[in-house]
Here is the input.
Amino acid sequence: MNKYCSFEEEDNIKVLRFLTNITVENSGYIKERLEFFLSFENKEIIVDFSDVYFIDSNGLGVIISLIQRARKYNNKLIFINVNSLIKNILDITKVNRLMNILDTYEEAKKYTMTI
Here is the structure.
């Protein structure tokens, strides 16, 4: 674990939790950490935004990199607890079309059982 994100496994589902806003100050470090975490194949990964209140363009780049890397390894991403400000940014940039966004961990866990 570090001060920007944590990686866990719960019930055979990988969970990535962002622990702060994703900005120019930390995006490089986060991308570097994601390289290893996403190198597993055919996994369901829940990405928790509970503690993220803002992303800048670099944060958007982190999200896009996350999606691209997951696709490379045939991983399924489910984003949860995304606040309305970030959802608005994702809508405007149309990145939301590449994402599966659900409200809660429980919903995401149920969803992983159907895919």
Remarks:
- The chain has a mean pLDDT of 91.
- The beta strands are 5-10, 13-18, 44-48, 76-80, 101-102.
- The CA atoms of residues 2 and 19 lie 9 Å apart.
- The two ends are 28 Å apart (CA to CA).
